[in-house]
Amino acid sequence: MALFVILHSLAALLSLLAQCWAFDLGQSTRCVAIPHQMSVCQDVGYSEMRLPNFLGHSSLEGEVVPRSEDWRPLLQTGCHPQAKAFLCSLIAPVCLDTFIQPCRSLCVAVRTSCAPVLACQGHAWPEALDCDRFPAHDDMCLNSLPKPTRSYLLKDLPQPACQDCPAVNEFPSLKVLLDSFCLSDFVIRAKLSRRRVLSGEPEFEVEDRVEFILQGPLLPYDTNSLLQQWLLINLRCAQTLVRPGRAQLYLIAGTVQSKGTVALKHLFPWHKKDVNIAVATRKWKHHKC
């Protein structure tokens, strides 16, 4: 239910953006402090914002703060390192002597990375954020930063991506389990939960440390975060896979695609009475595919 509320709220926001874009740069504006409850735009490098903002919102409590929270599910996916700067430059524009809009190049960079995530969550990139509406000259707008230099190791880390929901197999046979292991690049044991918390917080969580049955290309320090990001990107799929209530232990088998993206292929709920999963994990060390 909480996920439905988030997605419904985001859909309403995207619809409203198209109606609110007509912002007159010549209209009277005022500077206000960015409120603490506007958490998505904290730590952006400045403390005061201009109202109305570039989305036409003039009321902090009635429009700006609640609608800023609708972007949290997208920002939490980490779809682009400057997605927060881009969105906050529109939601909470910096209060200077001149209006500073995001550059077209920044919009394009964020859209390229984040539009597929929005699509995975059931939404198109909003027309109100059409990149052609932003200034093309980088000297009078918020520019994109150069891509950080990454080490060879970081560059090749497997990454989560949008995908079709993996199959869920309740009480699989021993043969099905071992065959699945043989066709997978990794097999992990993870406890997943659907959290009952305030709106705007992550609904899904990876509890405890992920354990490896077959490690493959995954790295121990990165796998918890990788699985958490996968759940955030594939929100609609996560709603189907992870049951509400107590945390559920799963055996998860998957592959790493040629582009370095992780694809989960099979989820096996690990029930206490399921002997086959326990036997399969023990036999796997000596099993020949």
UniProtKB/TrEMBL annotation:
Alphabetical UniProt keywords: Developmental protein, Differentiation, Disulfide bond, Secreted, Signal, Wnt signaling pathway
Localization in the cell: Secreted
SMART domains given in the database record: FRI (SM00063)
Major place of residence: secreted
Start and end residues of each NTR domain: 162-289
GO CC term, one of those recorded: extracellular region
Keyword Disulfide bond: yes
Keyword Disulfide bond among record annotations: yes
Cystine connections: 107-131
Gene3D superfamilies, alphabetized: Frizzled cysteine-rich domain
Range of residues in the leader sequence: 1-22
Gene Ontology terms describing biological process: cell differentiation; Wnt signaling pathway
Pfam families, alphabetized: Fz (PF01392)
Matches recorded under SUPFAM superfamilies: Frizzled cysteine-rich domain, TIMP-like
Domain FZ: 26-144
PANTHER family found in the cross-reference section: FRIZZLED (PTHR11309), SECRETED FRIZZLED-RELATED PROTEIN 2 (PTHR11309:SF11)
Family indicated by similarity: Belongs to the secreted frizzled-related protein (sFRP) family.
UniProt-recorded name of the protein: Secreted frizzled-related protein 2
Record organism: Coilia grayii (Gray's grenadier anchovy)
Origin organism lineage: Eukaryota, Metazoa, Chordata, Craniata, Vertebrata
